[in-house]
Amino acid sequence: MYFTTFRSFPLFCFGKTLKHSRHSCINACSPFLHKGLRPALVLIILIFSCSRPLCADPFSGRVEDIRGSALADVNILLLPDSSGTVTDDDGRFLLLHISPGDSLLFSHIAFRDFFLIYRGPETQKLIVLQDTLLSLHSVTRHGQSLQQWTLTRQVGLPGRERAATASELASEIPGLFSRGFGSYLSPLSMSYDAGPSTHTQLRFAGMDLTDPQTGQADMTWVPVSAVSSYSLQTADLAEYGSGASDAVLELQALSDRSSIQLNYGSFDYRALNLSHSFTAFRKSKSIPDAMISVHAAQQRSEGDFPYSWDGESLRRKNNDTALDQFYLDFRQNSQQPRHFGSQFLLSRYDAGTPGLLWNAPDTLGRRSGESMTGSLNWTERRVSTLFRTQLSAYANRSSFANPLIMADSEHSSSRITAEFTADHSLSDHSGYRAGLEYRSESLNSSDAGLRRRHLLSMRQGLHWSPSVWTLSGTLNLHSVQGRYSGSSFSTALRRSFRHRTPIYAEMQAAEYFRLPSFNELYWQPGGNPELKPERSRSFGIRLHIQTAESLVFQQELFIRHSFQMIQWLPQQQYWRPVNVQESLRTGLKFALAWHPDALPVSLNTHLSLIRSADLNSGIYQMKSLRFVPAWLFDADIQYSRNMFSARLELHAVGPYISMYGYPEDLVIAARFPLNGSLSYVKALKQWQSIFSLKIYNLSDLRFESVTGYPEMGRSLHAGIELRRQTDD
Question: How many angstroms separate the CA atoms of 264 and 117, rounded?
Answer without folding.
Answer: 37
